[in-house]
């Protein structure tokens, strides 16, 4: 059955295929109502996540990887929940800063940009950042989008020619008010003017250029934030934006003279001026979803992940531009804080920039991802040290999670290598079996874990989700420890049923942990779930029913053979001084009667 008059979006195509497979639509009336339902379904299920696009003036560092890992985690989470999620990242290649970096490297700008952009792309690919689009602002599709965007603003009278006089930081590509500028000494001891926020040098600039009527949007921006309390998260960043909006909001210079800045998109109709790099860069979010032609479906579901240093650009300039062209505002702007290294800001001059490629090799991709998301608190800055990484990964991934899997799948305890049967007499709901009060508490905690984790993933408080998972893993280890299944006698039928129930419950816990951890540590989760015999289509949000047998329904996993890959889930890491950190004493099954 064909409907050539319909242009089907990606999400709708899926629905259409489903319709073709399952239901034969008898008449046009039925089809129209199905279509209505499907467009609702497609719209509701679309999700669009972006990372900032990264400047290519230098190689990627840990902070960049952090922004990307947060975006990736959210994207994987949404896919798991059945959303049709798109996830974009890429590189920001225009502007004075890049022009100067290319000059310093003695390369033509595009060659220079291509080289560094590839470094970002390779890093993201090697760290399992599952982007669906990688945008470069030097691409033709982007130039078209920027030109169109500019023309709409121009035609609406929101851009005018004026004179800008004030401070500019090339490093931040940002205009500053006098109140945002202070004094500092440069490395040679000379007094210089700097941005109070970033510490970067600023220069006085006076040129004729185009101005955007930012000031007229102040009350609409405030209104947006008042009506949408979760528009900028966490809350403290939304408050910061409201505060800024209550101060002065002058019009914004949105172009530079071509004589100073050649590396960028020329202003349509005025080749003597180049479009301001932030206006150019922000439009990338629209380019990816097909602006100006086909952006609607995805644009209305957009979520930006950004670092706190670029909040003003995303929560004031960008919404004002969008209001100007008449497009919806982003659903949520998720803000994260920064990483310091051994207590100090990461900087080339201090020589403490953490190379994410080197560190991902040292601690594994999943190790790095786990550390960043487990220790990274969006509200406040976090400190990165080798020892902390090693300690955390050894404790939580190697000993706790890996140890739990080892225990439940060790041939000594599980000679048949199966997901054993649950025995409701040994673990009855009326609490009259061999299970004790703490066991029931654990079952209740694991049962509610998906809801807890969902709440924290949704607000990108991933560390809280991981804290909750980690607490449950500890409870399950204690459960095994408490009942010492290695002391039970398999030849005794009662003991055997109880032993199997212990392993069944523990494997069920592991299945829930593995499923919930997929957005954070995709490789480890895959290994864990494969070892448990959980098939790829059994790993979604819908498969998080825990301990079905205890709750009176069938468990599809009961009796299944375990997967064959019995390698360690995560190998313990060595400390910096070479000494292998001592594993916590775990009571291994000495022998089984
Ligand atoms: N090109 C602009 C973004 C344009 S988006 C339309 C930019 N690029 S950046 O390369 O400087 O920064 C990209 C991201 O890296 C930002 O989210 C920034 O906050 C993040 N980080 C840079 N240093 C960081 C840390 N030390 N720690 C955590 N994230 C940090 O800004």
From TrEMBL:
Molecular function as annotated in GO: ligase activity
Coiled coil: none
EC number: 6.1.1.10
Top-level enzyme category: ligase
Entry-linked Pfam families: Anticodon_3, tRNA-synt_1g
Keyword Protein biosynthesis in record: yes
Residue span(s) of domain Methionyl-tRNA synthetase anticodon-binding: 434-543
Domain Methionyl/Leucyl tRNA synthetase: 48-408
UniProt entry keywords in alphabetical sequence: Aminoacyl-tRNA synthetase, ATP-binding, Ligase, Nucleotide-binding, Protein biosynthesis
Transmembrane intervals: none
NCBIfam families: metG
Family the entry assigns: Belongs to the class-I aminoacyl-tRNA synthetase family.
Name of this chain's protein: Methionine--tRNA ligase, mitochondrial
């Amino acid at each position: 059955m064909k409907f050539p008059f319909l242009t089907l979006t990606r999400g709708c195509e899926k629905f259409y295929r489903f319709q073709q497979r399952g239901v034969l639509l008898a008449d046009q009336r039925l089809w129209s109502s199905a279509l209505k339902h499907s467009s609702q379904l497609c719209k509701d299920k679309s999700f669009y996540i972006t990372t900032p696009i990264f400047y290519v003036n230098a190689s990627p560092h840990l902070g960049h990887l952090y922004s990307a890992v947060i975006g990736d985690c959210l994207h994987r989470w949404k896919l798991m929940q059945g959303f049709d999620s798109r996830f974009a990242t890429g590189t920001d290649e225009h502007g004075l800063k890049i022009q100067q970096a290319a000059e310093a490297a003695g390369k033509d700008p595009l060659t220079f940009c291509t080289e560094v952009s590839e470094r970002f792309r390779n890093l993201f690919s090697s760290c399992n950042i599952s982007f669906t689009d990688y945008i470069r602002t030097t691409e033709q599709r982007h130039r078209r989008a920027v030109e169109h965007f500019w023309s709409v603003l121009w035609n609406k009278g929101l851009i005018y020619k004026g004179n800008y006089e004030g401070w500019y930081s090339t490093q931040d590509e940002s205009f500053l008010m006098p109140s945002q500028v202070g004094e500092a000494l440069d490395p040679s001891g000379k007094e210089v003017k700097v941005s109070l926020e970033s510490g970067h040098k600023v220069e006085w600039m006076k040129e004729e250029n185009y101005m955007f009527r930012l000031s007229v949007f102040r009350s609409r921006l405030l209104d947006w934030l008042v009506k949408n309390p979760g528009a900028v998260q966490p809350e403290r960043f939304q408050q910061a934006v409201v505060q800024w909006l209550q101060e002065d909001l002058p019009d914004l210079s949105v172009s530079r003279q071509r004589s100073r800045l050649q590396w960028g998109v020329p202003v349509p109709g005025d080749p003597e001026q180049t479009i301001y790099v932030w206006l150019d860069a922000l439009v990338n979010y629209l380019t990816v979803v097909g602006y100006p032609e086909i952006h609607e479906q995805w644009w209305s579901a957009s979520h930006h992940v950004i670092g706190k240093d670029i909040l003003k650009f995303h929560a004031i300039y960008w919404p004002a531009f969008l209001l100007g062209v008449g497009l919806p505002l982003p659903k949520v702007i998720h803000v994260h804080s920064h990483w310091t290294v051994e207590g100090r800001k990461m900087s080339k001059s201090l020589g403490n920039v953490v190379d994410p490629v080197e560190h991902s090799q040292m601690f594994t991709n999943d190790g790095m991802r786990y550390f960043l998301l487990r220790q990274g608190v969006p509200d406040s800055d976090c400190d990165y040290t080798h020892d902390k990484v090693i300690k955390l990964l050894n404790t939580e991934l190697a000993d706790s999670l890996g140890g739990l899997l080892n225990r439940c799948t060790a041939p000594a305890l599980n000679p048949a290598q199966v997901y054993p049967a649950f025995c409701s007499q040994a673990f009855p709901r009326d609490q009259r079996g061999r299970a004790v009060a703490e066991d029931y508490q654990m079952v209740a905690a694991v049962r509610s874990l998906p809801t807890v984790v969902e709440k924290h993933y949704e607000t990108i408080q991933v560390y809280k989700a991981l804290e909750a998972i980690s607490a449950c893993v500890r409870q399950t280890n204690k459960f095994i420890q408490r009942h010492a299944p290695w002391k039970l006698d398999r030849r005794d039928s009662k003991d055997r049923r109880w032993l199997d129930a212990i392993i069944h419950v523990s494997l069920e816990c592991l299945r829930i942990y593995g499923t919930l951890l997929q957005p954070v540590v995709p490789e480890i989760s895959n290994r864990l779930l494969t070892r448990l015999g959980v098939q790829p289509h059994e790993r979604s949000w819908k498969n998080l029913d825990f301990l079905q047998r205890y709750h009176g329904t069938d468990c599809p996993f009961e009796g299944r053979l375990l997967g064959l890959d019995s390698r360690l889930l995560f190998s313990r890491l060595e400390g910096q001084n070479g000494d292998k950190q001592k594993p916590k004493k775990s009571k291994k099954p000495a022998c089984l009667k």
